[in-house]
Fold this protein.
Amino acid sequence: MQSSSTPGGEHAGIGRLAATIERLRREVQEAQQAADGRALIELARGILIERLQCGPTQAAQQLATLAEEAGVSPLELAVDLINQAARDRLAYVASEFLGEAPPAETRSSAVRLRAAETGIVHAPDTQAVAVSLLEHALGPLGATAVAVWAAGPDASLSLAGYAGFSSEEARRWHYVPPGVTTAARKALTERSTVWFDSLRHAGLPTIGHRQLSGGRVTVPAGTGGRLLGVLEIAWPHDLEPPSPQIRKQVEALAELVAHTLEVPAGELPVPAGDAYSELVDLADGLHDPALVLTPHLDGQGHLVDFHISHANGPFLDPAGRPRGEVVGTMLLETYPLLAGDGGIYEKVQHVYATGEPFRADRMALTTLVDQVPLSVVMRLSLSRQGGGVLVVWAILDETTRLARLLQHAQRLGRIGGFEEDAVLGEITWNEQLFELYGLERSAAPIPIDRLAEHAHPDDVPEVGRFLRALLHHRRPASLTFRLLRPDGISRHIRVIAEPVFDDRATLLAIRGAFQDISAQHWTEVALAATQDQLVQTEQQAAEQNRLALQLQQAIMPPTRGPMDAFDLQIAVRYRPAEKEHLVGGDWYDAMVLPSKQILLSVGDVAGHGIEAATGMVILRNALRGLAVTGAGPAQLMSWLNLVTHQMIDNITATAVCALYNPETRVLRWARAGHLPPILIREDRAAELPMIGGILLGAVSEADFEEGRIELQREDTLLMYTDGLIERTDTTLEDTQRQLLVSASRRAPSLEERLDHLLANNRSDTDDDTCLIGVGLR
């Protein structure tokens, strides 16, 4: 007999155990579904008993007969009867879209909703509610996870139940503090359903956002105008725009969830007993006017207004009505103009629904006085306390507004004011002056005649002259000095003061102001240093530009007489930039090599100034030296690229190099990111082929292609830099086409052809221009 302890036996035993567990799980699930179905059928039988006045047996037989005649299952017929009898939100959701959905699909949705309702009603806690929602209603919609959030009185969120998320994820998200923006928080603050097609695109953190980054929907759940929590549903895939039927089903489920989140009766929605007394005591303890508002619900439990339940002693009605006429009335009846869009009533609703407090230093309140609108400006504070809303407002009169404006201006300007009473000897400082001196508010103000004791020693003589003018000669005076504070900090201060006299020229007081100008002082110092540095930099730049221009003119004069070499006539033109600071690195060269071949080249170093000019000299001379080796144009470009990359820092350049053999009349050429030469033959101009070649200095090693063409009698070859055609108002392709048209024009001589091209192809970038013309006689 084989022992079950062998490896094969162990695997078989584990497999049988897993299959048994799965079978039991399915049986439990089927039993739960059957129990939910029986509960709905029993409820439908009860409806028939009440309507038909029959017994349970006759009701059961009638239900079975009606289901058979309608061609539906008893469960589906039971749900239809319940919907007809209830006429509640679920019945409305199931029947509103009968014309848009097939009957079978509509009945399936109705069964799911009623089954979910039954599961919620019989669920022992919110955790079981979440499981029932996912199993009966949301799973068939493709959802794989659900979370039920409970909203705290401070607008925090606590995870009350979940399904489809791991327990570890639930522990991580058991509490969301106020002010943290999550997917559920968005629905709470906006007080509306929020659909996220893709959570990863929304970028909001929430439970399971790493594992389930597909579609999400968050639905506020509340009753009586107060949001008690949020229902959050997760899909593993991105969501398409939902149909109206699906939206209504999800909102109906959130309404069911709201009833499971309600606190025991007596606490909501109206404060009762000790809670209400504490709220009234809180309002009475405030020095500002305060109201206590409690929600007023209609027969269906919807919030329609707020009762003004209490007004504290300091309360002042903007319309001048006594407290007795305000307390006990409805908010919108007493202040109907609060209902405007974005007005105070909407803020009250939001605070009551979400628990988020609202503060505003300035807000307009418009009320009616004998049917005439009266607007006042007030400071407003709204907060939810228990099941009510505490409204604290203070009307700002003109004096209060001006005092607050002055205080604000003094704080922004870092201005401290003082007054010394010459009769009583009293000294008054404002808060800013204590801050400037670095003293506590409880410290004694310092008389103006002791100003020298707190000044920098180097500034004491200036302080003395200021005090003599103010106190002895009794004239207005001003002074800028360095104030030494007890904490060792030195501040640059401007003080302005003047004496105040009565009608008999008797001195009454000395008034003045101190202003901290430290930031302005150091800004002026920094500005002066920057200006000095700028002048020096401009001088250095001008000197560099002058040297670059001299270097460029020494190597490449703007004009040069024609050059004859064998059967070639060579002419060059160079047009420098008009502005010295734009002196660039364009070059041209034409020389006869020891091999009797003729080297022709043009190039353009990126940038302007002395660096571009010196880079141009290096590359031009390097190409001359390399050409003596007898190498071809492609090899010369490869070597010149190595020179550019390794020997010159941060320089790139474009170039065209050509070698002409007089014996064979063959021109070989290569390019490094440069525009190809133009061949004019029989008065038709065309570019040579665009062979491959990267610009010089981009990489350390690069290969270059080589082109070859045999010149004929009367041919003309043009090589140029982009300064000839580059414009800011059109593309390079358009200007190249214009150049070909201009080059095709017949010219009496090579010199006149080059002059014509320079005159008729002027760019607008003020860049250097090099142009070489080669004519074969």
Q: What stands out?
A: The first strand starts at residue 145 and ends at 151. Residues 660 and 695 are 23 Å apart (CA to CA).
